[in-house]
Every structure is written in structure tokens, then in C-alpha cells.
Write a structure and sequence with these properties.
heterodimer; A: alpha+beta; Heat Shock Protein 90; five-stranded antiparallel sheet; 4 helices; 5 strands; B: alpha/beta; Transcription Regulator spoIIAA; five-stranded mixed sheet; globular
Chain lengths: 126, 126
């Protein structure tokens, strides 16, 4: 789904809510995944200049999980370690978006290159 | 764009957030509340977020800045009704809503605000 406008951030939350409900995540797990999706969608829209969210249902043995990828073709992140530090912010945020979302999920993968964009992939297992 | 209604009850302003908040709507609420406090001389603001399924860093920042602005305008803000799953997620995300008064429900929130009225200008200690 596209992530171009603020309204798309709301749509991504609703999509993730529906998916986590279908997967029968607990309420706390649903809330964590939706919150992480909200943070990362906003990053894509505000800092990445727009992009998209892709989702897939994944399985590991008997466990089901939800994987989300947020990709943009924006400016990229020059210093990943710095960007993942609590309190660091490039804009007017609180600096918890990236580092905080990482705490809300089981797997977190960040690929970025200056000038080429950013792709954040998160997974939460049931 | 949609707008969150602000109700006045005596010296208190009541806001119930019932929709999945778009960022601009949240910012507008902040502006609307500041001007309403100024126009009415309200001494208390009660924000009911029991219908909110998530509070991400943007909404968290909005709640913190409303509290800050209101304090400067001599009004006390109480945020009530946060769902437990939202509270768990918010803390894990890294937001503690410092400086924001909270209460379990509307009734207790109103009690906190009326206490302030009764005691004049003393700050609330609970």
C-alpha cells in the first residue's frame, strides 16, 4: 500500500490492526505492532518523502507472524547507529520513532544508503 | 478536515478523542484548545483517550505539549482512560509522558480538576 500522505499513516494503522486481528495476536501484541507501523509509516512519509508499506504473513515452525516492510527512495540515513539512539532526531520528533519501534517488535532490519532510500523491515511473532 | 469538539463544563474543557487521529487533526486540536483556554479562562482540561487504540510518539508529543501550553495559561490538564495495552506500548516505545497528569477514568480526572478549583492556585499533589 502507498505511503504518501498523512492519511496513509492512518490507513497503514488500520491495515495492520486488521492483519494482527486476523492472526489472533493478543491485544498488547496488536497494539505494539500497530504503534510500530505508525512510527515507521510516518518516517516514510515525512523523512523518506513517501514510499510504500508491504506486508506478509510468515511462518516459523508452528508460529505465525506478521512482517512489514517500509520502503522509500528518500535521502537515506547517513549514520544508522546514531539514528537508532534514543533521543536522536533529524526533525521535530521526539527521537523515539526508530529506536522505539525496534523495541516493540521481535525482528528489526534496517537497510539504507545515503541518496538511495531506506527500507525498514519488522516482524512480530504471535 | 475533521475537528475534535471541545465542550465546556463550568471552568473545565472536555475533549473526547473518538477517531483515529490524523497528525494534522491532532495539531489542530492543540491550537483549538489553546485558544479556547484563553477565550474561556478555563482552569482545567480533561482529555479522554479511552477510545484511542494506540498512542504513538506524535500523539504522545501532542498530549505533552497541550499540557505544557495549558500550564503556561494557568490551566491543569488531565489525560484519562488510557487503555492498559496502550500504556504498556507507550512505555516500551520510550515515552513516559512526563509532565502529563493522568487519571484512570473521567470521574477521577474530574475529581483532580475540581480539587484544584477548590484549593485555589495550589498545585495538585496526588
Amino acid at each position: 500500500m502507498p505511503l504518501q500522505t498523512e492519511h496513509d499513516i492512518v490507513m497503514s494503522r488500520q491495515t495492520v490492526r486488521k492483519l494482527t486481528q486476523e492472526l489472533k495476536f493478543s491485544l498488547v501484541d496488536q497494539t505494539k505492532m500497530i504503534t510500530a507501523a505508525s512510527e515507521l509509516s510516518r518516517n516514510t512519509v515525512v523523512y523518506g518523502g513517501g514510499g510504500e508499506m508491504r506486508w506478509s504473513i510468515v511462518a516459523n515452525g508452528g508460529r505465525a507472524g506478521l512482517r512489514l516492510a517500509f520502503e522509500d527512495k528518500g535521502p537515506g540515513i547517513p549514520d544508522v547507529d546514531l539514528a537508532l539512539t534514543d533521543g536522536w532526531t533529524s526533525g521535530k520528533g521526539m527521537g523515539v520513532g526508530l529506536s522505539g519501534s525496534r523495541r516493540l517488535v521481535n525482528e528489526f532490519d534496517l537497510r539504507t544508503a545515503p541518496g538511495e532510500g531506506t527500507c525498514v523491515t519488522i516482524t512480530r511473532w504471535k | 478536515m475533521e475537528r475534535i469538539p471541545i465542550l465546556q463544563m463550568g471552568k473545565c474543557l472536555l475533549v473526547t478523542i473518538q477517531v483515529d487521529l490524523q497528525d494534522q487533526v491532532a495539531l489542530r486540536l492543540q491550537d483549538d484548545l489553546s485558544s479556547t483556554i484563553e477565550a474561556t479562562g478555563a482552569t482545567g482540561v480533561l482529555i479522554d483517550i479511552s477510545a484511542l487504540e494506540i498512542v504513538d510518539s506524535f500523539i504522545g508529543r501532542m498530549l505533552a505539549s497541550i499540557s505544557g501550553i495549558a500550564r503556561v495559561l494557568d490551566a491543569t490538564t488531565v489525560v484519562v482512560g488510557m487503555q492498559p495495552a496502550v500504556a504498556i506500548t507507550l512505555v516500551e516505545l520510550g515515552l513516559s509522558l512526563e509532565g502529563v497528569r493522568t487519571a484512570l477514568n473521567v470521574e477521577r480526572g474530574m475529581a483532580m480538576l475540581s480539587l484544584r478549583d477548590g484549593e485555589g492556585d495550589h498545585d495538585l499533589v496526588d
